[in-house]
Amino acid sequence: MRMRVVVAVCAACFFGLTLAEAAEPRIVSADGSITETVYALGAAGSLAGVDTTSNYPPEVRSLPRVGYLRALPFEGVLALRPDVLLTTVEAAPDKTLERLKRSGVEVIQLPVARSPEDTMARIREIGRVLGKDAQAEAMVADMQQRVERIGAVAGNSPVRVLFLMAAGNHGVMIAGRDTAADALLQALGASNAMDEVSGYKPANREALLASWPDAIVIAESRPGQFDIAEWPQLAALDAWKKGRHYVGDSMLLLGFGPRLPQAMEEVAGVLAKVGRVARNGH
Amino acid sequence: MYWLKWAGLPVMVIDGAGRLAKGPALLMILGAAFAVSVVSVSSGAYPLSTADILAVWMGDLDDEVASMVLFDVRLPRLVLGFLVGAVLAVSGAILQGLFRNPLADPGLIGVSAGASLAAIAVIVLGGTWLGGWLDLAGVWALPIAAFFGGSGTVLLAWRIARRAGQTSVATLLLAGIAINAIAGAGTGLLTFYSSDEELRSLTFWTMGSLGHASWDDVAMAAPWLLLSLCAAPFLARPLDAFLLGEQVVGHLGYNTDWTKRAAILIAGLGVGAAVAVSGLIGFVGLVVPHLVRQTLGAGHRIVLPASALAGGTLLVGADCLARVVVAPAELPIGLMMALIGGPFFLLLLLRTRIA
Amino acid sequence: MLLHVDGLGVHLSGKPIVRDLGFQLDAGEMLVILGPNGAGKSTLLKGLAGEHKMGAGQVMFVGRALSNWSNRDLARHRAVMPQRVEVNFPLTVEEIVRMGRPPEPLSKSMPVLSELMELLDITHLRHRLAPGLSGGEQQRVQLARVLAQVWSTAGPVLLLLDECTSALDPAHQQQVFSLLRRLAKQRGFGVLAVAHDLNLAARFADRLMLLHQGQSYISGQPSAVLTEAVLAAVYGLSARVLELDEGYPLVIPQDDARVSAYAEPSLSRFAPLNPSCRQAS
Questions:
Q1: Residues of B in contact with A75 (CB under 8 A)
Q2: Average pLDDT of the residues of chain B
Q3: Which fold has domain B2-354?
């Protein structure tokens, strides 16, 4: 008797779950910040799979992975039987996308967000796809508020910031123009100390010294990846010695996803110190 | 050199019964090719049962997605994989005969690297310096560039390694190292200057992939691959003579220079076209002819066709693995081949040394 | 006239190796070229085999300039055995011998292959892989391959053989040279062979030609060429030459005056410095 109840409850749970899932579209998300947004909007249950750039939140690691968003395998995506492939314009190869469309998968390619406005537009779009418009609206409103508050704090004297990407053991890349890092600095009203470089380029230790930035931001793909002990040139910079630096997760800093306000707040905190120093100096 | 000790190995199937075994051996490889093709068509991330496949194949099942998976994804992939594997193995066999050296793999002497450097140059510089070339050659720009990169490198290695009518094995391999390094540097330089967009195409070239094969790719590459495959048997007899030494080729009545040029052209064309559609795939050209020679003898009339069949089979088999092991994602086939071929080659070296 | 060479010169990287050389070879004749190391014997043979460009002079083969022959025709009438053939690939003896044959079904090649392998005493090796054979065995395999090339040729045949017995033991040397002589006499092959063994050459050749510094020092009947004076002048060899009753000379090297002058007395006393001309390699 009790056994039967248990079975019935289990079955109910099971059917309840499947029914709930059936209501939402099955989604493969091929972009780290889109995946983040899907989680933030509370639609994790509709995710059938993600790509290798999706690492946040940590729960995402239990989902099947279809490879890199720039080399999506047709069968791999199709095997997850998604209704929607939610990705960015960076997704490739075109052949795979086109074949997926022909197989009845709705391929939604969102623009790459490089500003708070883009980010908010993208969140609204994702909310619409997920049928979570209200949640998306609330998130955007909160974001709007926080971004405005930061803008008020940042002040108007442009601060020169050196933005670095820690990659691998000893490799550090300089973020130049036309990068997400540059976009983040722009959003904060700061200027890039390396704007003569385009894209991410391997760092030259002397150039680090020569740049003499007001502040330093370092994005690392794993916590603890960047070790200042390996970079005496950086440690010798005034900005480092005076504590005007921030080391943070690259997905947080460069994802332009739901955590953008948090990223801006963190960096703005460092920039504010520059302002104080500058004011003190005058 | 280690291959002098080959006779120390058990003489496999080459004596008496060996001659009888050649026909059945070819049939066996053919059977394996067929088997692996069936496996290739029926394996993949997308779940399709054998019954489904048969139904779709016979036109009994009207499932658009299933038929697309089967006809537009797995079949072109199978065809391209087989052709590329066959051509790489045959090119390897030809180059090894020409250089009289079982180590003359298109990868080791830098042919593949040269071809892929040319291809990458077209990708990265297509918008700027090589714009004219792109306008001129259109969709053929890439394969033609890969072909010239490939055959140019063979010529270069050939020129460097030859002195007074002899090809120095050591110089050849050293030249290969240098050529690979230079091509690698060129690739690195282009990577450095490439945009994000271009970079994504580059990874494909350096890792090798059959994952995105379509009938368009087959249509583009197959004529060159088939040309190279069909022309190769004509070289079988002069290549046999090459095994005895370059001067013997002339003594036996073959035109030595013509043979060399034809061999370089065929190998360069084949490897170039293969690299153009599938990127860098190593070890097929080394491992397959080596195995064939060990089991069926070194005469090119058997080595060339057997290498073609076995090369195609091996690559298709490796591709099956590549798409299954990390499904739903895929391993690049070049990586897969290196994973299979590297240890295998070491094993061969060790075995021949011990024997 | 099978082969007519007139004023031949061959240069190697600018240096004249063979100069102003002229000789003739008839069908059915066996001419052995002798000479010290570096005299230009191999270069001459390579020139005639088409491996080196001829710098000067004229070579007529069966009444036609050698350069006017097509590769294929030439291969039917002229077979060449290089000094060294190294086989790095797992080819069997039979496969190598068969390489000499034109494209033809195996059933047609087989009688020729069997006959040649029998003649050169390599039948027992037919399924062995060439890289594992001894130097002498390899040489016999190559010779079989060379003969296979012209075995079925109707018409003139020229064999160019560069030290084709250098790695053979005396019995096989004798076997090979008498085979060559038989081929010349019975089938009319013209044989031009480079050799080092004076007595072997004297015994089997119709004529000898002694090369010295790229030129013909002397040529003619063995007994005319192999004289004590000539050997001393060309080789710096001190030897006694006996004219045998069979009609050919026998060269017996003497204790070398020059060597004993430098060598330690004890050594020259106990070690018989009597290098045989039949020394193999």
A1: 44-46, 69, 73-74, 323, 328
A2: 82
A3: ABC transporter involved in vitamin B12 uptake, BtuC (1.10.3470)
- The DSSP result for C13-82, as a single string, is TTEEEEEEEEEEE-TT-EEEEE--TTSSHHHHHHHHHTSS-EEEEEEEETTEEGGGS-HHHHHHHEEEE-
ipTM: 0.85
Mean pLDDT of B40-60: 85
Homologous superfamily (CATH) for C3-227: P-loop containing nucleotide triphosphate hydrolases (3.40.50.300)
Question: SS3 of C165, please?
Answer: coil
Q: Where in the sequence is the domain holding A251, given as residue range(s)?
A: 157-281
Decide if A91 touches B, using CB distance below 8 A.
no
Structure tokens at A249: 């997760």
Contact C89 B8 (CB under 8 A): no
Taking alpha carbons only, the member of C215, C201, C178 closest to residue C251 is C201
Chain A residue numbers with beta carbons less than 8 Å from the beta carbon of B329 are 52, 65-67, 73, 76
Query: Is A149 a member of any domain?
Result: no
Task: Return the pLDDT at B147.
Answer: 78
B260-287 average pLDDT score:
86
Confidence class for position B52, pLDDT limits 50, 70, 90: confident
A234: in domain: yes
Q: Does B17 touch chain C (CB under 8 A)?
A: no
Amino acid at C118: E
Chain C contacts in chain B segment 61-80 (CB below 8 A): none
B23 touches C: beta carbon within 8 Å: no
pTM above 0.90, yes or no: no
Average pLDDT on C113-128 reads 94
Q: Does the pLDDT of residue A277 top 70, yes or no?
A: no
Task: Please say if the pLDDT value at position C118 is more than 60.
Answer: yes
Please give the Cα distance from C68 to C222 (Å, whole number).
Answer: 34
Shortest Cα distance, chain A CAs vs residue B13, angstroms: 42
Chains that touch A (3 or more CB pairs under 8 A): B
pLDDT of residue B354: 53
Give how far A65 is from chain B: nearest CA, Å.
6
Q: What is the pLDDT of residue B31?
A: 93
CATH number at residue A71: 3.40.50.1980
- The CA distance from B351 to B354, in Å, is 5
